[in-house]
Amino acid sequence: MFKRFWGIVKMQIAITFAYRGTIFFWIFLHVMNFAVMFFFWTAVFSDHTIVQGFTMEQMLQYVLITSIIREFVMVAPEYAVNGDINHGKLSTYLLRPLSYPFFILASSSLWHVLQMTIGLAVYLIIAFFFLPDLHFSLSWVSLLQVVPLIILGHIFCNLLSITLGYIAFWLQQASAFFYYKDILILLTSGLFFPKDLMPSWFQGVMNILPFYSFIGLPAEILTQRIQNISVLPYITHLSIWILVIFTLQIFVWKRGVRTYEAVGN
């Protein structure tokens, strides 16, 4: 098993360098999203000193941290799965001893670890040169609290994306579902707006869905908006969601393989 995993690692590193332009393109898009939010909040705070309990410094810290977390948790292997199924490439993987879902999970995670490494360096450069007045008071306690949430969030998003990719077993054009997934995450994770700025009924939706637990909540902990909080309930919440989506992934995969044709659907 270790040799197989190491083979995936070497292959993914080679693919990353071969398609490094793609990584920089996606990082550029994410940085542009951060820039838009930066100018938006700068304009808002030009007329206000505090917005819903946030100072301007806290808000910019929040936007920067959520942008960095996004680099790791928002994976998108569904496009690769969709292409493998529709183009008949899945047949090659089915003949290999390595499980295709495991291969996609591992390769997707490795790709985004490498992407996050580059993205983190870009954001640190932005913070150092363009946001020199931001001061972070990070502690080991807060870091230890948020790391499990982010890791679980990455696992959940990976499983969710792969499961959506299986829609290609029945539909040749499933990209609309991928966009809906991204929109749902952007709206309910706190990536665009902190939870306290949302209506109370929408905050209830955010509490039920798992996305806030691994994007908005870690950002609020790291910016000290939330202090002395136990993350165990959120870890339990995420673990339940992971168990549900993992079970659904297995079910959809088994049903989909039965209908699969080597030339596509």
Structure notes:
InterPro entries: ABC-2_transporter-like. It holds the Pfam family ABC2_membrane_6. Keywords: Membrane, Transmembrane, Transmembrane helix. This is ABC transporter permease. By secondary structure, the chain is mainly alpha-helical. It has one domain. It has a two-stranded antiparallel ribbon with strand order 1-2. Helix 1 packs across helix 6. The longest helix is centred in the middle third of the chain and has 31 residues. It is elongated. It starts with a helix and ends in a 6-residue tail after the last helix. The mean pLDDT is 82.
Considering the chains and any ligands shown, give keywords for the structure.
transmembrane helix; membrane; two-stranded antiparallel sheet; transmembrane; ABC-2_transporter-like; 12 helices; mainly alpha; 265 residues; ABC transporter permease
